[in-house]
Task: structure prediction
Amino acid sequence: MLGDPIARRALAEVLILAVACGPLGVWVLLHRQSYAAESLSHGMLPGLVIAALAGLPLILGAGAGVLVAAAVIALAGRDERVGSDAGVAVAVSFLFGLGAVLALAPQAPPRLSELLFGDLLGVSAGDLAVAAGLAGAVVVALVAAHRPLSIAAFDRPAAASLGASPARWEPVLLVVLGITTVAAAPGLGNLLLVALVLAPAAAALAVTRRLGRALALAAGFAALAGVGGIALSYYGGVAAGGSVALCAVLPALGGLALRRG
Amino acid sequence: MSAVGAEGLAGGYRAGTDALWDVSFSAGPGEVVAVLAPNGGGKSTLLRALLGELPYRRGTVELAGAAAYVPQTERARLDFPLGALDVALMGAYARTPWYRRLARADRAAAAAALERVGLAERAGERFGALSGGQRQRVLIARALVQDAPVLLLDEPLSGVDAASAESIEALFGELRAEGRTLLVATHDVCQARAWDQVLCLNGGQVAYGPPAQALSSEVLQRTYGAELVLLGEGGAAVSVSHHGHAH
Amino acid sequence: MRAAALSAVLDAFSAPYMQRALVEVALLAVLAGTLGTWIVLRRLAFFTHSIGTAAFPGLVVAGPWGIAPQLGALGAALGFAAARERLARSGRSDPDVATGLLLVAALALGAVLASDVYPSGAGVDRLLFGTLIGLTPGDLALTAAATAAVLVVDAAGRRSWLATGFDAGSAPALGVRSAAADRFLLLAVAAAVVVALDAVGALLVVVVLVVPAATVRLLANDLRALRLGTAGLALAEGVAAIWLADGLDLGPGPVLGVLGGAVFALVALLRGARG
Result:
């Protein structure tokens, strides 16, 4: 497998993503933002599709898609009578539907499956460089924001007085989530990327409650999932993105099931 | 003959200890019982036990027939698309099996109950649009529709405007005259003095009896502990962290 | 000129598959009117979406295994529900996380299975986004049966759902059996999702069951008006969507998603401008 350049690049991509997605996932779970993570990734589809149609780099489409999705989702969830869950459902189904309409219009090239489920095996050296840059930015941001994020997560009432106001740091987390989503979308697809964000982190938090260890473990589990998934895909001949996602999710589910709360 | 009572009731097991223990009391028809307890003192546990919602650990609960429950209005979803009449009508749910429609008589009963609490002209208004006192009266109307011999009320007068409070207290008098039994959880000690019996709780039962005996300063001290402020010997005692309505 | 346009529209609906689609839409509108308001009021939008997504792997294998797609979907949905129950019982973890993980697992499983079953990817689109031409009379019969069952469950359970949603704490004192009735509500929603999957796809069941109800919720504050309005809006949007989908040669799901979302936004804007 390592002799195959395509597989090598795919491996490199998932390992790069693992470093960012794993720790970020821990923060997402601790701040109870998993629904936001899923909605954001599903809602970014029109951005990806438009970029693909226009021949632009997917990364740009992902970025624009995430920004628009965040704005639309935030707006739609505001009415209290409708409720934020129904509002988000309206927003995500609108965006996702829009992406599908644009992608399925007959003249368009049929690449929708790749946008949804990822194209790990089509990763180029240039893509790797971009992913590395974004992942690096995410890691730096998480390191810099480590203390305020942990205070806001564990001691929310006191956080503001300790200089870690959730009102300011939760949006920071969401921005970092957005960047990670953008980085992971081309490789894993917008439907499956949450797997690498949420699952290794869930597994890590099931094993330990110590923050530092959880962050490191999450990255480790994510890396393992990446390697396992690529291997499964390479030797088993099945979809790469799905395999990585499964390798991430199944151990996490097992861990959750076995844990006696 | 007891309408509602308990004997050695203990329950609400939580984190190694009971929330409630040693409760023994008995109230007959036409009696209004004040239940005084600090926050976390077992009041909610008692109400749940009396409603049959707590698999209580020890002791017995006695209830002659069903009990109607009047909760605090904050627990209700105020954005729900329900009018005052709709809420009052819910009182008929208990006697209507799920496969049967609500009877016209039930609707009439709901309208009559709203009239009785002085809210006839607001029957069509949305529940959430009413004031706190009006909402409390609607919930009482719901209990009236249930037509139960025993009513359990959770702080029906707290945070309620003076007009609603007067109307509610007058209603208590009427219900008493009808032979119903009321159990009223309250923090208003001077309110409690006006009623028939007082039950003081602080986890365990501190006292039960007519207010003249049960509301001694010693009992109040044991019930409310540090929350209590006594204004002069035999004068009105006010609990510092809760508001009663002003006389 | 207008007569020609009108007859063009009517012509589009004359094909047998379009007439079946119309019947399906009408039935789904009844389902939307019956359950949609409850889904919004009882905060079940995420649950509705998850059943649809969870059904995806079941849909993928239904074809090759020769079973009805609804059956595959039902099996997958039940598996999802059982797994969710197991996870909820075992840990103190956030239930949202367990559900989110299960959904992603369902998508990943479906993707992996689909790469075996549908190497070209075209069949997967139909499962994700729905179909007009693929609706058989058998599908219609199933949807009709589900609709009838849901109507019965609604008639029996709605007082309980109302009382429990309004104030869960005082519901038992009113003689309401909240747990049992709520279980039936979830089952009814699951049944509605399973029959809606064919038309709108696994990922967009909310466009029928949630979006019209959410839109009407912006306007109305009376339960009867909410339910009737939702059914009417779902019908109108559904008919428009299948006409557009037919013209654009797309699955109805995404078209309805865009249409429903646009209407929601419009209503929200107009209401904001007035109020």
